[in-house]
Amino acid sequence: MRRSRAALGSAIFLAVAPGLVAGLVPWWLTGWQPGDPPYPAWPRAVGVILLVAGIPVLISAFIRFVVEGLGTPAPIAPPEHLVVGGLYRYVRNPMYLAVVAVIVGQALVLSRPVLFAYAAAVAVLMVAFVYGYEQPTLARTFGAEYEAYRRAVPGWRPRLRPWHPDRGETPDPVDRR
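Given the sequence above, the corresponding structure tokens read:
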């Protein structure tokens, strides 16, 4: 039953938060109409890659909260367990990175500079949220477990190799940040 509620809550939050930030607002800003003059083909190709990569990363992060955390990414229904599997073994914030990637992907595909500015604003707000609310809350909730994870897995730039908490790994010197 808990997993069903977590799945429903995560699906609703996925539609509301990332759906609004990476879907509805870019549509409001652009109508998803290409800008003039269009970029050459290669930036559009990069944009498609960001979109194609960002969406499954976002969905897999939400699934991870249900399966591993028995909760949602929403602050009003947080996970019962610290989520450290899947893509979270490489970077602590794959969900936020995916949202920004989707917005930048749309900016490149549509040749719309306004979406680059919007992506930058979203990134600044997400970083402020992470440092101002999320990290302190996770530290209070999960204590030493979160601190070990935070020391081992970077927040914004993925590790080269996945972290294995069961092996008692410390941060890679290359990944230390």
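DSSP finds four helices and no strands in the chain. Try to locate this feature in the token string yourself.
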